[in-house]
Amino acid sequence: MSLSKGQNSLNDKNERFSSAGFILAAIGSAAGLGNIWKFPYITGQYGGAAFFMLFIVCLLLVGLPVLLAELALGRAGRGSAASAMVKVGGHPVWGKLSIMYVIIPFVILSFYSIVGGWTLHYAIQAFTGKLFSNNDFAGQFAAFSSGYAPLAWLLIVFAICAVVVILGVSNGIEKFNKILIPAKVILLLVLMVNALLLPGSGAGVAFFLNPDFSKLTIESALVALGHAFFSLSLGMGIMVTYGAYVDRRQSLGTAALAIGGGDLIYAFIAGMIIFPTTFSFGINPAQGPSLVFIALPAAFSAMPFGSFFGGLFFVLLAVAAIGSMVSLLEVPVAYVMERFRWSRIRSVIIVSVLCLLMGVPSALSMGLVPELKVGGKSFFDFVDFTASNIFLPLGGLMVVIFAGYYWKNAAEQANLKPVWFRIWLFALRYIAPILMLLVFLHTSGIIKF
Hints:
This protein is mainly alpha-helical. It is 74% helix and 1% strand.
C-alpha cells in the first residue's frame, strides 16, 4: 500500500459503516473494560441495584441525549472530530477547542492499552494454569506489572489494533466488530451461567438485584453519571468520528437507543458474573480495581475447571479492551488523515508509535521507575486522572453547549419528531450542562460531597 498523500481519505467508500456495522462498532467501543472492571466495584460500593437504577436514569437523562448529539454532529460534519463543529457552521474558535477530541483519546489510549496488555497476559496465564500455580495473586500481579513484560504486551495489543484500523472502517473496524461482538456475547453468557451455578451465588444475585437506597448520595449520583458518560465513549471524539462514517439514511435516534441498550445489557450481565462469583467465594465486591487481577483469580483457582473459566474471563476482558482501543485509535488517525492528507497506513503507524512512546513511561511508573511521578501520583495514575476526571467532563460539556445553544441545524441532523426534539434540546440545554459541570467539579477535586 502506498504512503502517498490523499490515499484512503475520509471520503473513500471504505470509510463508511453499514447500518448494522455502525451499531456493532459503537457497542464494541462502549462495552469495554469499564463495565467489567469498574462497574461491579462501584456498584458494590454504592448500594447494588440502587446504584444500577441510578445508572439507568443517568443513561436516559444525559447519556443518550449527548450520544445523539455527538452522532448527529459527526454525520453532519463528515470529517474528523476536530473539524466537525466548524464544518456544521461553528466559529473557527470551536475548531481550536475541538482539538481536545483528538488529544483525549490519544492520552486515554496510552494508558488503557497497558491494562489491555495485562488482560491478554492473564488470559494466557489462566489457560495454561500458571496463574493458579501460586496462591499469592497480589504478589503475582505486583511482580508482573512492575517488570518489563507489560511493555511487550503493550506492543502486542497495539499491533492488533493497528492492523484493524489500517484495514479501514468497513473492511477493518466493522468486520472486526462483527466477529468481536458475537464472541463477547457468547463469553458473557457462558461465564454468567457458570457464575449462577456456583454454590452460594444466590447471595450475590440478591445483593445485585435488591436495592440499598441508604447508600445513595450526591457523590454516588455523580459517580453513576460519570460512569454512564464514560461507558458510552462520550466526550472523547469517538462517537463524533463514528458518526462521520454513518449513512445519512440511518436513524440516529434508533441507533442511540440500540447503543445505550447494548451498553446497559452488557453492564447487567457483567454484574451477574461478578457478584455471584465474589459472594460464592467470600470476596468483597467493593474492594476496588484489584478485584479483577487479584481477588477474582483467587475465586477461579477454587472453582471446578477454574483455569478454563478464568481464561475465558480474561479473554473477555482482552476482547473488550481491544474493541475500545480500536475506536480510540481511529479518532487521532482520522484527524491526521484529514489534517495532513496522509494515507491511512501512514497515519496509523505514526499515531501508534507516538502513542506507544507515551505509554512507556506509564508502564515503567508501575514499578521499574517509581520515580516517574507528577503531582505526587505515578505517571500512569496522573495520566489516567487527568484524562478521565478533567478532559472527559470538559469534552462532554463542550459538545452539549455547542449542540444545545449554538448549532442551528441540530433538529435537521438529529431527525427527531418535534416532541422528541424538544425533549432532547431541553436535556442538552438544561440538564446535561449542569450535571456535567458538577461531575467535572467533583472528579477534579474542586468540590466534595
